[in-house]
Amino acid sequence: MRRRTRSPADAGMIEFTGMLPAILLAFIVVWEAFLIGMSMTYAGHAANEGARTAAVNGDDQAIKREALRRVSGAWADERNVEVLHPNGRNHPDYGYVRVTIRPPLLFPGVLLPMEVSARSRVVYEGAE
Question: What is the pTM of this model?
């Protein structure tokens, strides 16, 4: 009985098949890092916009509306975004606008069990 030898192409296919789970896992980790980074970026932009609005008129609904305008895509769902502008002086975030976003897990609709937040100081122009 003659024994069949493998060609170099067969060996390459076997190596690729063995490495495929590692390649897919690396892609998923990089993609999730990108989604978390985008969440951080959107939270920062939204906090800045909310602080600008708070400096002008301070209406909580206007602050939330303007902050949410800076968030787009899968992150724009109001259930995933929290905008906080406390009025009490003894609150740790008094004088700031804090935006908290729950990043998606691989695709929109499924959220990570963590939050990403950013805060921006409200600078009242003309106040002494």
Answer: 0.77
Task: Give the whole-angstrom CA distance, residue 105 versus residue 40.
Answer: 14
Can you list the positions of beta strands (E) in the chain?
81-84, 96-101, 104-105, 107-111, 116-121
Tokens linked to 87: 């009025």
Token pair, residue 70, equals 């800076």
C-alpha pair distances (Å), 103 with each of 39, 43, 60, 100: 6, 10, 24, 10
Rounded mean pLDDT for each run of 10 residues along the chain, 128 residues in total: 65 79 92 91 91 83 86 78 78 82 82 87 71
Give the count of alpha carbons within 13 A of 42, CB side only. 27
d(CA 48, CA 99): 9
The two tokens of residue 100 are: 């908290």
